[in-house]
Design goal:
The complex is a heterodimer of chains A (448) and B (102). Chain A has 448 residues and is α+β, with helices and mostly antiparallel strands. The chains are: A alpha+beta (448), B mainly alpha (102).
């Protein structure tokens, strides 16, 4: 380089221009980097605050494999109704009940008079208006099949309009989630158990019940499927009387919701009736209606609340536009997670892969899923002296609707098995879903 | 929770302003890698604060502590390494001594 050029390059104007160019370059880099960071942050925030971008609401096919082996289930084989006639099971449960820790736990945190009072309070509405429905008793007062209908039929624009209005009403009346499914007789019990719940039983005489066919006063065309959220704090205190309170309150909300939504539809001139655990299987309808996916714990896993929901349905002759099943990575996540199986005190949840049949006669075969063992489950309930919701409480999808959990759910939807395994372990490491001890039960009444 | 985001937003703006003033005051030379380190480090730092506050509000103290440890710790490490790199790059390069041929 000759001396003139060197001198020109070293002049004050040149060095100022160079400095200015360097600053300009750094500022440009800064702006580029800042914009990129801001854009990434916006995308993350949006995806954290809305349903995961990887969910596929347009999947029309039912997202679980159903083989021809799957038949309509006889309600007498549900674990609750088997306690009316299956003496082998009854003896096992009596034996478990005799070992019950309930009496020894009295006045301990979670088992005190205060806690039981709350449990009874939670169950009150269900006990008054739908007694026995939680065990499958059909046609309770809140879930009567044949109520009067308004003779004046409301004219909807079309099925889509009807669905929109019904969903709006359901949300107004207290539903946390609403979806519509087509009526499918496969999910209706082939026979219903109608128990004489007012009979006074004695050990010498068996409980009185009859098997009745599900002959509805009308042919259902559509099913309004609704989920009600259960109390997060209550469920987290499983297994205790406080968790029973949350469960009971869920049933009471179901009762009120099923009753009022079916009344709404009847007032519009169309026959309808609500039901909970009775009449038909809830989870397949909920999946068909796009409320969630099936989890390893045998429960519906929703995006918003995880498995911390109770499901109530309304059958109606009104033709509604059905929703589509939705997937958001639960099936894949459940393959690696297994938190519920680890948290189950009776080992009733499978650690293995999904199968086409379960271990007991209470499992209806023919569907590819993780079958739980309801015999082990119910025996623990009797032994423990209360319900159990450990599989709900421990599920990583059971979270409050905060940004960090929505971000986690979005990341969990990524179909990368090692990453999902890592997320499940991190969920455990961070202490989420841990089964609470008695101190947590004690704190319940003192917390704000 | 809205106040938390508001305050966090204020911290982010303040940090960017401080960073910018430091860069211009000390005439720092920041490469693309250093910029990446700064952005990732700061993002993780603010992420850990947001995580901490949210977990405390939720009542999950273990999650709060571990979040601060993991995300905050990672942020500190990245920022420390980036700082060293920036300082090293920004040092004026000394001219090699001329050989005396006499």
């Amino acid at each position: 380089m000759d001396k003139k050029k060197i001198k020109a390059n070293n002049s004050p104007q040149i060095s100022n221009r160079q400095n200015h160019q360097e600053k300009k370059l750094n500022r440009r880099q800064f702006l580029l980097g800042g914009t990129a960071a801001g854009f990434s942050g916006a995308v993350l925030t949006l995806s954290a605050s809305s349903p995961p971008i990887l969910s596929s609401p347009s999947k029309a096919r039912f997202p679980i494999e159903i083989t021809d082996k799957c038949k309509r289930m006889n309600q007498k084989y549900t674990i609750f109704n088997r306690q009316l006639w299956d003496y082998e099971l009854i003896n096992k449960i009596e034996e478990a009940a005799s070992k019950s820790e309930r009496t020894s736990k009295l006045n301990q945190h979670g088992w005190s008079q205060l806690d039981y009072a709350l449990s009874e309070a939670g169950w009150t509405v269900d006990n008054k208006f739908a007694p026995g429905s939680e065990g499958g008793q059909p046609q309770t007062p809140a879930y009567d099949w044949d109520e009067p209908v308004n003779p004046k039929k409301f004219k909807f624009k079309d099925a889509k309009d009807a669905s929109k209005k019904i969903k709006k009403a359901a949300h107004f009346l207290g539903a946390s989630l609403v979806g519509i499914a087509d009526y499918d007789p496969l999910w209706t019990y082939s026979h219903l158990v109608k128990e004489n719940i007012n009979a006074e039983y004695s050990p010498e005489e068996p409980p009185q019940f009859e098997l009745i066919p599900p002959e509805f006063p009308f042919q259902p065309k559509s099913v309004v499927v609704m989920a009600v959220e259960m109390n997060y704090k209550g469920i987290s205190l499983s297994p205790s009387a406080l968790e029973e309170a949350a469960t009971g309150l869920g049933y009471s909300h179901m009762c009120a919701l099923g009753c009022s939504v079916s009344a709404f539809i009847r007032q519009l001139g169309y026959r309808a009736f609500g039901h909970g655990n009775d009449v038909s299987l809830s989870i397949p309808y909920a999946i068909a209606a796009g409320l969630g996916e099936l989890g390893r714990n045998g429960l519906l896993i929703t995006q918003e609340f995880g498995p911390r929901v109770r499901i109530v349905k309304v059958f109606t002759e009104l033709k509604l536009q059905p929703d589509r099943p939705k997937t958001f990575g639960v099936w894949q996540f459940c393959k690696t997670c297994k938190r519920c199986a680890q948290a189950c005190p009776s080992q009733a949840i499978s650690f293995g892969p999904p199968t086409l049949e379960g271990e007991t006669i209470s499992n209806n075969p023919g569907v590819l899923k993780w079958y739980i063992n309801p015999e082990k489950c119910i025996q623990f309930w009797r032994e423990n002296g209360s319900d159990c919701a450990n599989c709900i409480s421990s599920c990583p999808y059971n979270k409050l609707p905060l940004w960090n959990h929505k971000l986690g759910a979005t990341l969990a939807a990524l179909p990368i098995a090692p990453f999902q395994y890592f997320l499940a372990r991190m969920d455990n490491l961070f202490g989420y879903g841990s089964i609470r001890n008695s101190q947590a039960n004690a704190n319940f009444w003192d917390e704000d | 929770m809205d106040i938390v985001w508001f305050v966090l937003g204020g911290f982010i703006v303040l940090s960017i302003w401080c960073l910018k003033s430091q860069i211009s005051k000390n005439n720092l030379k920041i490469s693309f890698l250093s910029w990446s380190g700064l952005i990732i480090g700061l993002f993780l730092g603010f992420f850990s604060i947001a995580w901490l506050v949210t977990s405390i509000i939720e009542g999950e103290t273990r999650a709060a502590g571990l979040g601060l440890l993991i995300f905050g710790g990672l942020a500190l490490i990245i920022l420390a390494i980036t700082r060293r790199k920036i300082i090293k790059n920004s040092r004026p390069k000394t001219q090699p001594a001329k050989k005396n041929n006499s």
